[in-house]
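Appendix B, Record 12. Input sequence as logged:
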Amino acid sequence: MRVLVTGAGGFVGQHLVETLIHRGYQVYAGLRKKETIQVDKAVSVNFDITVPEQLHRIIRDVRPDAIVHLAARSLVSYSWKDPTRTFIINTLGTMYLLKAIGNLIPAAKVIIVGSAEEYGLSAKTGDPLTEEHPCYPQNPYAISKLAAGQFAIQWAKKEKLNLIYVRPFNHFGPGQREGFVVSDFASQIARIEKSLQPPIIEVGDLSPQRDFTDVRDVVEAYVLLLEKTVSSGIYNVCSGIARPINEVLNALLTMSKYKIEVKVNPNKYRPSEVPLFLGSSKKLQDATGWVPRRSFYQSLQETLDWWRTII
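Logged structural output:
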């Protein structure tokens, strides 16, 4: 099977490309201009997701049997700074891609990756979020993803496309850049161990609870959705376990080679509107048999060890 992965140079994309190659797929790694990927046997294809003519050319030339669309601006903080660019990439880019697919390869299987951020204030109930919960997004990133997802679902119905829309919850692992909670903590510990910053980590509110999954388990879910015959629609990808942020930090601190002081910085303290964000992956499990298999604490250790190699 020929699979095109957009956003292949990103955190999830690189893990996905490696997994697909290992499983014998012919993988085309969709990358930005001048971007490269260090994965043997992957064929690099460079294009701009926001330029319809380039997308049309790539889809025409590659003729993939399946596409996993990961290309996005995923930092919430960035979306507040530049909401326009966030919408151009996340929403319009998805629209352009789906139009090219509908015109050229309507029989291809398509996986569009959204975000659990779309649920937003629905999580205030404290119940595990299912695909049936309404979406009340609370930041430009989440709104851009919801808009892309709604277009994708309706366009797929109109064009009779085989489309799966996934909403992953918090995920982490080796290779994740800063800007996400686990890597923010792990990168600081790695710097402290190399005397690149004082042995102090400043924090805000550590009480919110979030649903974390190792990126390699998330990738396994995407691959199973590619391989299995499943109904079109929305699928959550999550562990079903809510962990307080202070548990994440404390676990990483026990892995540190040095004693580190934790200081509460009032400027970082932003009480969460959603203290508990928890998902249900029952629909995905019933359809594919997927369950997360990696140990949460081992994944934390591997993330910290990765940061130690690059700092």
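The first strand starts at residue 2 and ends at 6.
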